Amino acid sequence: MSQGLFTNPFGIPPPSDDSYASLSRFIAEFSQAVPGDQFASFANQLSSLSEALVSKFRGGTRPLDNMSEIRAMFQTLDQKFTNLEDGQTSLKEEMIRGQSSLREEMIRGQNSLREGQIRLEGKLESLNSIFLANKGDVYLQCREIDSKVNKTRSSAQRSENIINRFVAKDTKPIPFVNGQEPPTELPELKTISDVDNLNPQQLKTYTEGYGFKYDENEPQKSLKRKIADSAGFVTHQDVLYELSDSNESLRDVGNQSSAPNQRAGTRRLCHH
């Protein structure tokens, strides 16, 4: 029997002899080597090969065409395996090219993201510079708004005090220009006489608290009249009230004790 019949792409060695056992073993190994999804393509050929080998072993004869068919079967099988190997190689090459392309896309994406981050950081720095440049202006505007609000509050309370003076009701403290109430250690100004009883230290505190511009040599009587006017003491009796003066100037206040003098009015109570 020709050894060419036993050539196969699976590496199965040909039978060592023409015995039935050797030939049967070869056919069994060949059948197992064929992939399951391709077995149907070779079932008839394997069956014909088995019949030819069995017939030859028993001394029978088969047409030469069957041998040619068997050889053609092996050639077809060998070609299919060759095509399969070529397909696997092509698939590997496609996978390698795909991985390379994907890697390049990822690198481009990372570079684009990095460039966008740099541009964003630049814009943030620019905005921060603009904010710092305008911070001073915003602060001044806020101060101006606070000042206007405080002046409005003081003006409203002064108007209320004027009305209360005409109807003989108690007045309320006028807030200082910083928006705060006068300190509790200052005498509360309920009447024009409370203003007249202020000592130089208290007079200076009220004058500065209400934001009056003054000369330290300005007569105390003049400063008292300004404070009385700010507190809303502008009735006919208030205007006719003769305020006392003092030989002391505000320049001498620093040499005095911070304690109020005997002429000071009633200490301020906390208003809620």
TrEMBL record:
Biased composition (Polar residues): 254-264
Location of region: Disordered: 248-272
UniProt-listed InterPro entries: Mug135-like_C (IPR013902)
Domain Mug135-like C-terminal: 171-230
Entry similarity comment: Belongs to the UPF0612 family.
Name of the protein this chain belongs to: Mug135-like C-terminal domain-containing protein
Organism listed in the record: Schizosaccharomyces cryophilus (strain OY26 / ATCC MYA-4695 / CBS 11777 / NBRC 106824 / NRRL Y48691)
